[in-house]
């Protein structure tokens, strides 16, 4: 607890002033109406009329990110008089189900797994959005994104934050010193890997250890390669079990990933051989790049937060990332990513107002100005995105050539997506062959 060093008299005066201010603020709607009519509140006119109402939001976003999120809607709350009560939890997924089952659901939840969203929607727990929210979402997001929160023809909520997973991290300094060029095709990526391996250094480093979630980083590799070896439509069939998990098309993607991840000449720079990938933590997987022991590390945009303090993340910095190249230019520019969706368990007017605002370009820009934020919102101004890797991510998401697909394991039933798929990838890294791995996962798909 902080101890005040302010003189007692000053504290007393401040207390009196504080009481006076509180009394004025509690004078009811007059002060709130004064605020609502101020120039800075002009942008929130359409959301007004709910002064004094409360809306609860529950999500997995915590700590500094939670503080930033609450700051992003502060002006909206001040101008509308809606009090937003936010709660973030590390046990979000499990506790959300408990709260819903117990009749204590939040008004709004930010759900990062479309599979979980679908489960609540099919159980009749979610409320379809208002016409205003739907129009706002369709204005600011592509159909690729909106389909993940559409169940049975009903739309349940716009995306919020996003991340791009189709990145390869590298050291611009090392590339300049060695004369390496950023590859733009799969063949160029493999040629670069061979060139580095010929120097005696293992070009790639990776880590898939993540506590109870060990294995998930390897699933991202397979998902990215499914998008690069197959069409987006085949990817969609795979995540919905339209084709079996051990289909030859899936085997092709896994084997393609294996040309890097199971290649002893390529991995695991700074840590050891192929099997060391399973015991190297996700957080530490790419760090050998900063130590000159590795050159390439495939990981999402959010890995920017894992580099040692003081590391400059920029195109001319200590580390940066390039787009994980496609294999066939005819398949467009496939991008794997994730994000959260703002769904509601209540449909009171003030809840709908908050849901609509969160789908707006105004909110996306408000949050971006605070820092460290990526969104697929088409109204997000790049000038408001300061972090270089975030800016690159937004550019990719806003590129009309981008073919976006959501993280496959988040779309699959939990028994597979966060169960056998993770486990299968660990066993595969440790030596299990492709056919046996995929047959094992296929056998766990809910009947």
From TrEMBL:
Residues 1-25 form the signal peptide. This is Alpha-glucoside transport system substrate-binding protein. InterPro entries: Bact_solute-bd_prot1, SBP. Belongs to the bacterial solute-binding protein 1 family. The keyword Transport applies. SUPFAM superfamilies: Periplasmic binding protein-like II. It comes from Micromonospora polyrhachis. The keyword Hydrolase does not apply. Keywords: Signal, Transport.
